[in-house]
Design brief:
The protein has 155 residues and is an alpha+beta fold. Helix content is 15%, strand content 29%. It is built from three helices and ten strands. It is globular, with a radius of gyration of 16 Å.
Length: 155
């Protein structure tokens, strides 16, 4: 078992990243079958490069018909404490208040601790995998939701 070596090629990044390095990419690669099938990841949006523009984020992710890896870094003002987390969507995002996606979607934390949060039982998850709702709404619903009933990221 230990004498067998396995070689793999991490997907290349189209642009340099402020969040992801080879070590983090390797951890994501080993836990995500989709990443094991591609050779390159394209940076779609970075608020560090372009400033924050939610309408642009919605436009970009609504137009893509591909799985998506979303990475977020939450940093305190003193820049000493931060967390890196995100989610993987196996299906394209739809601009609707209705939940969509599949049980292949999952959430993860990268820093301070690497951990994946997979759907344990897709029948119990009630199909609450992801939603994108950019229109003004009267229900104060967060415009992006990711996860299931137990663990959810709202943006």
């Amino acid at each position: 078992f230990l004498s067998k070596s396995v070689r793999f090629q991490l997907p290349l990044l189209s642009d340099s990243s402020y969040i992801i390095d080879n070590e983090i990419m390797a951890m994501l690669y080993m836990s995500n079958p989709f990443l094991q099938t591609i050779s390159k990841l394209k940076l779609l949006y970075s608020n560090i490069l372009t400033g924050f523009n939610f309408k642009k984020i919605v436009e970009l992710i609504s137009e893509l018909e591909t799985p998506m890896l979303i990475l977020l870094k939450n940093e305190e003002k003193n820049h000493k404490n931060y967390a890196v987390f995100g989610g993987f969507s196996s299906e394209a995002w739809k601009n609707t208040a209705a939940y969509h996606g599949s049980a292949e979607n999952y959430l993860f934390s990268i820093y301070p601790t690497f951990r994946n949060y997979f759907v344990e039982n897709s029948e119990l998850a009630e199909k609450n995998y992801q939603y994108l709702w950019s229109t003004d709404n009267m229900h104060n619903v967060s415009p992006i939701g990711f996860g299931n009933k137990k663990i959810f990221i709202y943006c």
